[in-house]
């Protein structure tokens, strides 16, 4: 966290002029049809926006946000990126990769207990965090805002030690990070040409991607966020961030109505749900599309449920925004879920 204005220490001051993004992602990402899944569901035309193909350390939606956040960090003369997340955080993995690309250090607060010494190695995103060389600060199991406090404390400690840290909230969900997805909405619009999309469905973790898409599409397309059990106040945070991102990028204020499905996260963040397992299998076996049990599996479960219960009508073209996360499939905790 650059110790400056409060939000400036958290990746961007509302109303501040944007810093030109640093190219870290492979853009534009592909837009592909999901005809076989649509047929199986007896539902609407389906497309998938492949932000799992952004390229940075196996890809994911956070690459777009990091292009903007890291630009601010470099402009402020920072030498270490600081953030946090769960053990299977895609944002932590990709922040570590971005730091390496830019010659910066990376320190993260992980809402997890340290390895138990049994000799079982880390898996999934946590393994990649180790490979990428991030400094891991295990803060134990904690709630969302306890983790945010841990990030702030880590950032403050590094500043006292004479470092120039740049702190990012969980998921990069500051107004700076959110503006990246307002721009991503423009990218999708260009790809669609004259084709109209009625719905976007996306995983809702920290809420930043949903907020950015809401700011970008405005009243033209309904954006359905599927709560994965991370943040307790999505219903108030998403519209606030969307409004701030719209103001930052000179767009009209987004609609007040925010659509969030809170019924798909099962027992909580990172816990496997039956509907996510079904959705992962459907996507893999009908489209060759790999989803994960933490984020995109639950988001796809939300799409499937919305089609089956008629919220998404049979003629309403729908885009599933694939935010990445496949490394989580290889976490040791999920090994028994897909056992042979």
- Alpha-carbon Rg, integer: 19 Å
Amount of helix: 25-40%
Q: Total domains, how many?
A: 2
CATH architecture of the largest domain: 3-Layer(aba) Sandwich
> What is the straight-line distance between the termini?
45 Å
Description:
There is one protein chain. This protein has about 350 residues and is an alpha/beta fold. The protein has 2 domains: about 25-60 and about 175-335, Rossmann fold (3-Layer(aba) Sandwich); about 60-170, Rossmann fold (3-Layer(aba) Sandwich). Helices cover about 40% and strands about 15% of the residues. Strand 3, helix 3 (about 90-100) and strand 4 (about 105-110) form a beta-alpha-beta unit. The longest helix is centred in the middle third of the chain and has 18 residues, at about 175-190. The termini are far apart. The model is unreliable at about 1-15 (pLDDT under 50).
């Amino acid at each position: 966290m650059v110790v400056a204005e409060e939000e400036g220490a958290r990746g961007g001051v509302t109303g501040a002029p944007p810093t030109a993004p640093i190219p870290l992602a492979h853009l534009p990402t592909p837009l592909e049809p999901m005809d076989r899944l649509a047929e199986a569901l007896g539902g609407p035309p389906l497309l998938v926006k492949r932000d799992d193909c952004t390229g940075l350390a196996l890809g994911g939606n956070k690459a777009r946000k990091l292009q903007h956040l890291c630009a601010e960090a470099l402009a402020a003369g920072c030498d270490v990126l600081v953030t946090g997340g769960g053990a299977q955080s895609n944002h932590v993995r990709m922040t570590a990769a971005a730091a390496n690309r830019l010659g910066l250090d990376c320190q993260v607060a992980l809402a997890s207990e340290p390895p138990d010494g049994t000799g079982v190695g880390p898996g999934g995103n946590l393994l990649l965090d180790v490979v990428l060389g991030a400094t891991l600060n295990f803060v134990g199991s904690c709630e969302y805002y306890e983790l945010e406090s841990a990030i702030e404390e880590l950032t403050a400690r590094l500043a006292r030690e004479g470092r120039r840290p740049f702190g990012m909230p969980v998921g990069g969900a500051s107004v700076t990070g959110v503006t990246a997805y307002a721009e991503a909405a423009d990218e999708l619009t260009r790809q669609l040409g004259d084709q109209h999309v009625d719905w976007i469905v996306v995983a809702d973790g920290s809420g930043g991607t949903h907020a950015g898409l809401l700011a970008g599409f405005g009243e033209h397309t309904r954006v359905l966020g599927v709560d994965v059990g991370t943040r307790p106040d999505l219903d108030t945070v998403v519209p606030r961030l969307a409004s701030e991102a719209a103001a930052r990028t000179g767009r009209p204020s987004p609609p007040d109505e925010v659509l969030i499905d809170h019924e798909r996260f099962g027992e909580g963040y990172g816990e496997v749900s039956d509907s996510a397992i079904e959705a992962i299998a459907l996507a893999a076996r009908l489209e060759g599309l790999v989803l994960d049990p933490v984020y995109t599996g639950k988001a796809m479960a939300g799409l499937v449920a919305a089609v089956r219960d008629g919220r998404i009508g049979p003629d309403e073209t729908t885009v599933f925004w694939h935010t990445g996360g496949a490394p989580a499939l290889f976490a040791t905790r999920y090994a028994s879920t897909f056992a042979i």
